[in-house]
From TrEMBL:
Organism superkingdom: Eukaryota
Reactions listed under catalytic activity: a very-long-chain acyl-CoA + malonyl-CoA + H(+) = a very-long-chain 3-oxoacyl-CoA + CO2 + CoA
FAE domain ranges (all copies): 1-238
This protein's name: very-long-chain 3-oxoacyl-CoA synthase
EC number: 2.3.1.199
Region feature Disordered, mapped onto this chain: 1-24
Length: 367
């Protein structure tokens, strides 16, 4: 707990505070309703969108998959149209938020003049681990309750209202590698108690998957000067044998992006990505603060981080944001957004009540 990077304000469902915790289906549905119903109501009212105007509905919740589905729960609660195109994703891990964006993007390419609502969360109540396997207990320390709702549009009339434009979305899946596939794995322990195991190789796997992802992303976002510099460094490293052959050259992504949203999977994950991408500490501030205040909220963590940057007044029109998500499978997904409007830092979001208290100094404990 001391080394997790998660603070005391992070939230658990009421049922988890019971002794013993109640992991029933009833409490799982209650958590989903509390989170999803609240954020959908807030989003629709904020933008004055009637539920029947939603054409596409995509939800993702990795470990909780009720029948009827989560999207059906939303359709029933808010009265969406009978022909709404709905999809509930499960088992996709913490990177499912960007997978949902990718799916909505593809659907919007096919269905013109449409509104898409994307909902991202993870259900904590039914998925706590009550055994003694250390690799499965780590998830209890990191994961907390939270969720995000995102409204996407390809309608011309919404162009002036949009805050961001999706420029690129690059997905990488290393599931064919057994080590990567088993790095985040749901299974029973020796006593038959089910939990999600986080292996010791997770950080190494995440770094390898990120490398594969940025090989595809780099040419899309890096300026030609940086691509040329990177190309020459690779040649010098591999062919001309200059310098340290074991050192892998890394492009300077700070020349391509003003802001970075690294999935708040844990303190060690954020540290490793910063090191691998040669980023500055301030580049990971939003990720660390989101982890500290909200915990690992799985697929919704990237949106808490973007809200942090907005509340701090750091996102300006023309800025580009790189969202980096990791998930079981093992997957690394990147989304690149361009800010296309002036962001009001005083606009209400998840940080509005205490943004003035952040950033905070997170205690460092000896390992």
């Amino acid at each position: 707990m001391e080394r997790s990077g998660v603070g005391v304000e992070s939230c658990m469902p009421e049922s988890v505070h019971q002794l013993p915790p109640d992991t029933s289906l009833k409490n799982g549905k209650a958590e989903v309703e509390l989170v999803i119903f609240t954020i959908v109501k807030d989003l629709l009212s904020k933008h004055n969108v009637h539920p029947k105007n939603i054409d596409i509905l995509v939800s993702n919740c990795s470990l909780f998959c009720p029948t009827p589905s989560i999207t059906s729960m939303i359709i029933n609660k808010f009265g969406f149209r009978s022909n709404v195109k709905s999809v509930s994703l499960s088992g996709m891990g913490c990177s499912a938020g960007l997978l949902s964006i990718s799916l909505a993007k593809d659907l919007l390419r096919v269905h013109k003049n449409s509104l898409a609502l994307v909902l991202s969360m993870e259900a904590v109540a039914p998925n706590g681990y009550n055994g003694t396997d250390k690799s499965k207990l780590i998830a209890n320390v990191l994961f907390r309750m939270g969720g995000a709702a995102i409204l996407l549009s390809n309608r011309k009339e919404d162009k002036q209202l949009a805050k961001y434009k999706l420029q690129h979305l690059v997905r990488t899946h290393l599931g064919s590698n057994d080590k990567a596939y088993q790095s985040v794995y749901q299974e029973p322990d020796e006593e038959g108690i089910v939990g999600v195991s986080l292996s010791r190789s997770l950080i190494h796997v995440a770094a390898s998957t990120l490398k594969a992802n940025i090989i595809k992303l780099g040419p899309l976002v890096l300026p030609y000067s940086e691509q040329l510099r990177y190309g020459w460094s690779v040649i010098g490293n591999k062919i001309l044998a200059r310098g340290n052959r074991n050192e892998i050259p890394v492009p300077n992504f700070r020349k391509a992006f003003e802001h970075f949203c690294i999935h708040a999977g844990g303190k060690s994950v954020i540290d490793a990505i910063e090191e691998n991408l040669k980023l500055q500490k301030e580049d990971g501030e939003a990720s660390r603060m989101a982890l500290y205040r909200f915990g690992n909220t799985s697929s919704s963590s990237l949106w808490y981080e973007l809200c942090y940057l907005e509340a701090k007044g750091r996102v300006k029109k023309g800025d580009r944001i790189w969202q980096i998500a990791f998930g079981s499978g093992f997957k690394c997904n990147s989304a690149v957004w361009e800010c296309v409007s002036d962001i009001d830092p005083n606009e209400r979001n998840a940080w509005s009540d205490r943004i003035h208290l952040y950033p905070v100094e997170i205690p460092v404990f000896d390992c």
